[in-house]
């Protein structure tokens, strides 16, 4: 069965080195983020694990250091559900780092019961989209200073089911965990598309959205019973976290990829019609800026 599952996973490797480069990976204490951080550390990058849970992040850093000789890995506190924490993190980065070559917006929550962030946003929209939107905004000057640099937004194939509910972004009128999740994953791609358009004048800053595939990570703990049954029954189709990191790494390392594009299984992939709607992307950008109280042209 596991062999059959491997048929659905495209193998990929690269010998590119990242010596002298600085990388931030959000949600790097576990799963895809941890495997991404480990691979980049193995290539010589300075890797910043940006995590909410410092204890688990320190454990992850220890694991990476044991696996990777002379790994340059540091842990920094980042809670994407709290704009104050995001501001504090960005300030610390500017005070301690001279450059930033890769920002990997990997952290996420999935299909959780209704709750809100510290700033009153529905949690999945607030963390998966707004948190990373705000983080990227705050770090953009450092990314431009360090060009060529890249931003990678981890989305999902589930975005195909998504719609941006501008009339009810916070799910206050009608909330369903799946609806909120697929909305946030669609938002990741729309953000990627709009950022690429607006960054055209910023030489050297590229942005990509990726689908890691169905991966066995902590994020599936919030799946309902029927979906958990599917995961158990068809587990051979599910990628390991290391395999789930392939496409992120592909976009981080492969030269000359066109900016603003969406990738799955280490190749450019078709996204939904909604994800290609420039008007929706522009509107979401404006609404996101308004909700966060920022001006980002």
UniProtKB/TrEMBL annotation:
It comes from the Eukaryota. GO terms for molecular function: oxidoreductase activity. The keyword Transferase does not apply. The keyword Electron transport does not apply. Keywords: Oxidoreductase. InterPro entries: NAD(P)-bd_dom_sf, SDR_fam. Belongs to the short-chain dehydrogenases/reductases (SDR) family. This is Si:dkey-73n8.3.
């Amino acid at each position: 069965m596991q062999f059959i599952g491997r048929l659905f996973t495209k193998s990929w490797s690269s010998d590119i080195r990242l010596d002298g480069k600085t990388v931030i990976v959000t949600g790097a204490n576990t799963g895809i983020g941890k495997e991404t951080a480990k691979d980049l550390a193995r290539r010589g990058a300075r890797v910043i694990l940006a995590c909410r849970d410092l204890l688990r992040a320190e454990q992850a850093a220890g694991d990476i250091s044991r696996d990777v000789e002379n790994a340059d890995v540091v842990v920094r506190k980042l809670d994407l559900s709290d704009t104050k924490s995001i501001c504090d993190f960005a300030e610390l980065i500017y005070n301690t780092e001279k450059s930033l070559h890769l920002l990997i917006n990997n952290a996420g929550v999935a299909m959780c019961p209704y709750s809100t962030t510290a700033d009153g946003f529905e949690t999945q929209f607030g963390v998966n989209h707004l948190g990373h939107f705000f983080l990227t905004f705050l770090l953009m000057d450092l990314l431009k200073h360090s060009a060529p640099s890249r931003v990678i937004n981890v989305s999902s194939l589930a975005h195909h089911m998504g719609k941006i509910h501008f009339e009810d972004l916070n799910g206050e009128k009608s909330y369903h965990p799946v609806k909120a999740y697929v909305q946030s994953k669609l938002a990741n791609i729309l953000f990627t598309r709009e950022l690429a358009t607006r960054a055209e004048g910023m030489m050297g800053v590229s942005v990509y959205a990726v689908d890691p595939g169905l991966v066995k990570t902590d994020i599936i703990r919030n799946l309902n019973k029927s979906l958990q049954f599917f995961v158990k029954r068809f587990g051979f189709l599910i990628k390991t976290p290391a395999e789930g990191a392939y496409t992120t790494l592909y976009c981080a390392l492969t030269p000359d990829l066109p900016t603003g594009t969406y990738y799955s299984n280490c190749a450019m992939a078709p996204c939904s019609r909604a994800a290609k709607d420039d008007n929706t992307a522009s509107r979401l950008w404006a609404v996101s800026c308004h909700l966060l109280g920022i001006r980002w042209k």
